[in-house]
């Protein structure tokens, strides 16, 4: 149970107490899968089956070339043999920072299960063919939105609506919103985070959490990466 309390004054907001985690399961290097990608697959399916709200939501952290960080929530879309995939506008702030500094951190937090997964790695863009295949699977409204939004740029009132109307007309979308052919923009696509470190966190009482970390072994084959697995102090 939570014993959270807040003390407020004119110059300070102080939080005391915290939620006590008490998960029944337990993770150690001896009972996790040898591959962090397979272990993530297991935990992601657990989250789906446990009716976690938005198990695909993840925090993405990037940094400029000079190391100034920024974070935002995005949607995880694919796990393949190389890593974790999300899609965005290639002119957005996140993409510009990934171009400057091709390192990223992901964080999944499944509060209902007291579980977290942290991922650190390098990034690469998806191929045009991969981008187009995924873009075609999106609802037509989000396809149009990709064209209409100059993501992360300053926009004045009503400009977005007028741009959306322009592309509705340009691509011949009918009133039903189900007809028309919306091509994949060249300025939109996917990024893949190729992990070099993955940590699985399980909440436990008294903040003595279970933490299991995978570190990629440098020089191991790209198609069959090898990992060292350690337990970390909470």
Q: How many whole angstroms does the radius of gyration measure?
A: 21 Å
Q: Determine the strand fraction and express it as a percent band.
A: 25-35%
Q: SS-based structural class?
A: alpha+beta
The low-pLDDT segments are: none
**Whole-number mean pLDDT:** 91
CATH fold description of the domain at 5-127 and 192-231: Pnp Oxidase, Chain A
Q: Count all strands and give the number.
A: 11
Number of helices: 5
At a glance:
The chain has 234 residues and is of the alpha+beta class. It has helices at 36-49, 93-100, 128-137, 140-148, 159-170; strands at 5-9, 12-16, 57-63, 69-75, 78-79, 84-89, 103-110, 115-125, 188-202, 210-216, 227-231.
Q: Care to describe what's here?
A:
With 234 residues, the chain is an alpha+beta fold. The protein has a domain at 5-127 and 192-231: Electron Transport, Fmn-binding Protein, Chain A (Pnp Oxidase, Chain A, Roll), CATH 2.30.110. Helix content is 23%, strand content 33%. The chain has 5 helices and 11 strands. The chain has helices at residues 36-49, 93-100, 128-137, 140-148, 159-170; strands at 5-9, 12-16, 57-63, 69-75, 78-79, 84-89, 103-110, 115-125, 188-202, 210-216, 227-231. The strands form 2 sheets. Strands 3, 4, 5, 6, 7, 8, 9, 10 and 11 form a 9-stranded antiparallel beta sheet that branches. Helix 4 packs across helix 5 (159-170). The chain is globular.
């Amino acid at each position: 149970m939570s014993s959270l309390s807040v003390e407020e004054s004119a110059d300070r907001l102080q939080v005391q107490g915290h939620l006590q985690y008490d998960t029944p399961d337990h993770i150690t290097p001896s009972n996790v899968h040898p591959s962090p990608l397979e272990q993530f697959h297991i935990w992601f399916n657990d989250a789906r089956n446990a009716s976690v709200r938005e198990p695909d939501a993840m925090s993405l952290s990037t940094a400029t070339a000079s190391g100034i960080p920024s974070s935002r929530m995005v949607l995880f879309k694919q796990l393949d043999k190389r890593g974790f995939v999300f899609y965005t506008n290639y002119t957005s702030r996140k993409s510009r920072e990934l171009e400057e500094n091709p390192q990223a951190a992901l964080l999944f937090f499944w509060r209902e299960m007291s579980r977290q997964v942290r991922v650190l790695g390098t990034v690469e863009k998806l191929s045009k063919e991969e981008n187009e295949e995924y873009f075609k699977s999106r609802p037509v409204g989000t396809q149009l939105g990709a064209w209409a939004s100059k993501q992360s740029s300053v926009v004045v009132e009503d400009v977005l609506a007028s741009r959306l109307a322009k592309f509705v007309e340009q691509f011949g979308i009918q009133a039903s919103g189900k007809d028309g052919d919306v091509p994949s923009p060249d300025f939109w696509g996917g990024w893949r985070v190729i992990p070099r470190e993955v940590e699985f966190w399980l909440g436990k009482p008294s903040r003595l959490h279970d933490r299991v970390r995978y570190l990629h072994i440098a020089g191991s084959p790209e198609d069959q990466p090898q990992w060292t697995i350690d337990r970390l102090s909470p």
